[in-house]
Amino acid sequence: MEVRSLASLLRWGVTAVGWIAMIISLFVVPPFYWGWIHLILLACLLFITEYFPFPQDGGRVTAHFPLLFTLCFLYSPGVAGLIFVDVLLLVTWLRRQSFSRALFRTGYTLIGLISAYLVLIEGVPFLLPGVSTVSVMIGKLAVFAVVYELVSKGIRDILERAANPRYNRWWWRGGLEPALMIGTSLYSAGIILMGEQGRDTDPLSIAFFFSPLVAFSILSNVIARLARQKRKMELLFSITMGINRSLDLREVMNKTLMLLTDVVHYSYGIVYLLRDDRLIPEVVSGEGEVDDLKQPIPLSRGLSGWVAEQAEPVRVIDARRDPRCQKEPMVEKGVQSLLVVPLVLDGHVMGVITLGKDETHGFEELDLSFLAVLASQAVIAMRNARLVEERERRILAEERNRMAREIHDGLAQSVAGVLMKTETAIRLFDSQPQQVKQWLVECRSKLRESLKEIRYSITALRPSPAVRAGLLPALEKRVLDHQSETGQKASLQVKGTPYSLPPLVEEGIYKVCHEALNNAAKHAQAEKVRVVLRYAESEVWLVVQDDGIGFSLGQAVAKAEANNRYGITGMNERAQQLGAVLQFITSPGRGTRVVMKVPVKKEEKPKHAHQSVTG
Question: In sequence order, what are the residues at sequence separation of 6 or more whose Cβ sits closer than 8 angstroms to the Cβ of residue 84?
Answer without folding.
Answer: 46, 64, 68, 71, 106, 109, 110, 113
